[in-house]
Structures are given as structure tokens and as C-alpha cells.
Amino acid sequence: MIQCFIGRTLPCVRRWYAQVFTLLLISSLTASAQEDFKPKFGNIDKAALEMTAYPGDSTAEAVYLYDFGEVYFKYDTYRGFSMVMKCWARIKILKESALDRASVSIPFVDGSNVERRETIEEIRGSTYNLESGQVVGTPLDRKSIKRERPAEGRGMVNFNLPNVKKGSVIEYTYERTTPINVSDRPDPWSFQGSIPMKWSEFRITIPDYLVYNTHMSGYIPLDISEQERVPVNVGVTKLDGHGVAYRFAVKDSPAFVNEPYITTPSDYISKISFELSTIAVPGEMIKNYSQTWENVDKSLNDMSWFGGELRKSSHLKPARQEIAAASADPLERMNLAYAYIQQHMKWNGNNGLASADGVKKAFDNKQGNVSAINLSLISLLRELDIECNPVVLSTRSHGRVREQIPLMEIFNYVIASVEINGKEYLLDATQRYARPGMLPERALNGLGRLLPRNGRGRFIEVKPQESDSKLEIVTASIDPDKGILKGSYNISYGGYEALRWREKYSTEPDDKYHVDLKSGLPEWKFENIVVKNKVESLADAVGVNCDFVFEDQNASEDLFYFNPVMTGGWKANPLKSSDRIYPLDLTTGISSSYIGNFSLPAGYVLVDPPKAEVILLPEKAGRFSYQVRQVENVIQVHSTLLVNRTNFSSEEYHDVKEFFERAVKKHSEPLVIRKSTASK
């Protein structure tokens, strides 16, 4: 029996040790009996139906009153070893916008045979409403349950709960049976969702011979963390025995809000996930499935689609000969090789560690995914006798790399690392208008793993070398009597601002940018728009020069009001929430400057110029300065906002929010120009 169990190609079967949870969940609290919640299916509290708004979040369109999942293991002769997941959801509908939550779709794997096919069974559900003060339930009609196969190997169970309206409570439950050959681990359990959760609970019972490691992530602590030794019956005597039953719960979990300055929601949502460790059947076998980073490094190096591609470079010899003849300096060779691949190959928008058709074919076709382009770059640099190695990483939308979880599948991107005279350069040739060393924002996600040709791999920080940089200068004369400002407007786009500008406009006709500039400042009349350094020198800023006229229809004879930060000012605070439990990730630093010089005609003065102001973030992380002064007949305005750090903790949130708020306030203050008494 054990041989049959093992013979079903277990990719990974796991158990997790209590010690692991003791370390991971050290901040968790065990709920007292008075705080516990163990409802019965179909028993709906009348108060839940009378609720018109959720006290914890008055804006919520719905709330999970109960979100429950339980996993146990079983064995049968048809499917072999399987996991059974029981799901139970109870949801209060507070707004009509949440009525679609009564339409439930459950995806499952629909493999070619029973050992590779999930089943969805034991589907039950009801909708509950108050009628004449009484709780009335309308059960799910089993005839309404539909099973579909939208694609090869994929299935879907769909059903609609009946009689749902604003104020209803819907409840449903089902069981999913997953053979180990379909998935070797329980799905991660999230204690947060798009709506608040009054109670979210996960249970799992693990036989002693299955070894799982787990990882608790997110920013909401557990309210319940319990474990208990229990008898385990999986359906076959030789595998029965004992195990550990675990119970985890979070109460009053807020809805996850996709706030500004985050990577991807999965990096922040509180959840438990599972990773490979060991199968240890007494008297039969002990086998480790857990990986180390050294295993991951070796696997990538041995893979024909990754390390194998770096051992094929004959197609690059003409390029090597051309670059080698042009320069013997390693840094110049690096720049030439980077520019060659950057211009020769077009990125098709796809990520991944493997090229679909191989690196050589992508090179010949002059386009490919990130792997095809950057592995070509690495091979070319190695051909030029430059120390260059791949760095695998995870993009911001894919999720952060966690050092404590060695997994190959967390990586979906590759860049190049070059070392010349002790200095490291990180290169990505997928962006045609980026200078060497400037990585795309999607790749700025904390850690990458460098894989040398010889020796052990190591983690490196993948940090931006540039900021969002923009300098705007307005030089104008004011005619208060007519309410007209007339002058010149100059913009300098640097860093990632320049990169975004070039990606959007460099291949477009000049009129495209002209139209966008005018639509952004509809009150201005533009003339003589000139763009400099469109793509000629990627290391330098893009420059825009133009003339403009602005007319204020509300100007009076003696008083003239205007906002001196005529463009580029901070109009709104990007941080809206009053509190935040998640850290801030700005991706890049910020460098935003504005200079205004406004000439006044004789007889006019600036009334009550605002005081100069300087606002600092703690530890020199940022600086905002604003100054207005009149020198003879010229009003001079200087504003600079710098943010040097890209990451801030939740404890620093209020400082950063206030920093931006003060900038918004100063940039919205108007100036008053008055005709002096002596000139009247």
C-alpha cells in the first residue's frame, strides 16, 4: 500500500513543525473562549439580517460574516492520496453593488484521468432574508449548478444563489478533493479580501509522516493560533496513526485596499502558504523534497532553456568582432554591447526565465521576451571577456522574493550583472531608451539572485540608480490691467521621467506631444514648441522649450491674483488614507523642481509674500522647500521636492503623508499683485 502511495509521483508532500509556527507567529494572540466563534451552517442570526452597515467599515458593500476553510488528507484506490478542502462562506449584502457575489464560480483542474482531476462536491447554499420580522431561507436549487470546461484541463462549477437583494445574507459550502498528482500543497489561505471579514478561519490536520513548512505573511496578526495532537484516519490502516490539528483565525479583518506605493496585493495580504519539506513514512522511506538556494542555482544553471542558452554564443561572434575592433576599454565595450542588443532586439512585452523558441531564434528574429534579450546580452559580454552573470528576480506585479523560501517559480525576470574594476553595473536591454544601468521600474523589486559561472549564488539589492526627475521653469511678464501673463516655459525631463517620455513620444510625430501638452494646460496658448534631445543622448535629459500666453478673464484693474506654481505643482496628496498598516514603496526617488520668474510693470507690488518654508522628512529622507520673494520688479518663486528613500515603514506613514500635504498646500496658495498707492 505504501509503495502504491509513493508510486503516484509525489512532487512534494509536507508537514509543518510546531516550532516553525512558534517562530513565525510570535506576535499572534490566542483568543479567549469568550472571543471564539463557532457557528452552525444554516443558523443565521437575526441581527445579521437587520444590519444596514458594517460598523468596522461604513463604506463596505458587503462583509464576510464567516469565511472558513478546512483541509484534511485521505486515501482511496482510485485517486491515491488526496487533500480535501472544505470551504464555507457566509456573506452579508449591504449594497446593490454586491449582488453579484451571489453568482459563484469555482475553478478546478479537469485532468485526463481520475488521478489528475479535482472534484467539487457537497455543494449547498441558501439565501436568507427578513420577512415580517422572521428569518426566511431560500435554498439553492441543485438543478442550477452547472459544470463547464472553458479550456483543456480546466473546469468550472457555477451556481447562483436565489432571491438575493440588498440586506440578504448568502451562505454556501462545498468540498474540493485534490489528488496529490494535481497539487502537492494546500492553496494559500488569505485572511483578507476585497471586503471586510468579521471572522476568517483556517484549519488543517497533518499526519505525522507528512512534513510541511509554512510561511505566514502580511500585516494582520492572528487572533487564534492553536494546535492539538489528534488521531488521524486517512482511509487505509497502514497510513492511519496520529498527527497535529492546527487552527488559525483572524477576527475583524479590514478589506484590503490597493493603496498607492505598493508592489502587488499578494505581498501585503495576510495569508498562510505552504512549501515543500519531507515525506517520512516509518519503516518505509524518508525523502526530502525541500530545496535550498544552492539547489535552485544549480537547477537554473543546468536547465537547457537557461544555463544552457548561455553556453551557446556562436551567433554573436560578428557582433563581438565589431565591438572588439571598436574599443579595448571594458566599460566602453559594455556600453557598446548594451546598445547593440538594445537596438537589435525588440522586447515583445513578455517576461519569463525561458525564451519560447530559444535565444538564437529570437536574436535572428530581432525580438523576444526578457530572457531572450538579456541572455543574449550576457553571452555577448562574456564573448568580449567581460565578467557578466545573470541575475534572476521577480517583477513588482509578480511579488517579492523572500530569502527564507527557496523556490525557482518565484522568479519571472532576468537582468545582467557586470563587474568592471570592482564596480557592479546592472543592465536590462529590454528598454530601447534607457541608458546603461537604468533598470525598468517593473524590475525594481528589492532582491535578485546573482548566478555566477563558478561558485555559489548570492542575493543582491536591485535598487534604482535614477529618480523621477523634472525641472520646470516659467519666465513671464505680467500685465495686471489686462490679466495677461506672457513668456516662456521650459521643461527638463530626467531619470525615469525622461524614460517614460521617450517610450511614449520618441517614435510619434511631434504633433502628438504638442497635443498632449496643450490638453494638460488648456488655459494656455502655446507657440514655438521645440523638443530637444529626443533620443540623441539617453544619458541626458529631454528638453522642451515653448512660448505661451495665459489670460485671466477675472482680472480687475487694481488687483491681480494668480498661482505662481503655474504647472507641475502637487495638486493632490497621493496618500489618502488616515492610517496605513502597510509600508510604502515608491519604486524610485523623486526630484521635482519649479522656478518661476514674473516681471511686474512699474507701479505694481507683491502684497504679503508668503514666508519661506522648509519641510524635512526624518533621517534626511526628503526635503520640500518653497520660497517667494520680490527682487526689484521681479517675483521669484523657487520650489523643490526631493525624496531620497524609496521605502518607508507604516510607522513613518503619517510623516510622509504630512510632507506631501504641506507641499500641496503651499502649491495652491495664490499671490496678490496690487497697484501701489503712489502710482494711482
From TrEMBL:
Keywords: Signal. InterPro entries: DUF3857. Residues 90-215 form the DUF3857 domain. Residues 1-33 form the signal peptide. It comes from the Bacteria. This is DUF3857 domain-containing protein. The lineage of its organism: Bacteria, Pseudomonadati, Bacteroidota, Cytophagia, Cytophagales.
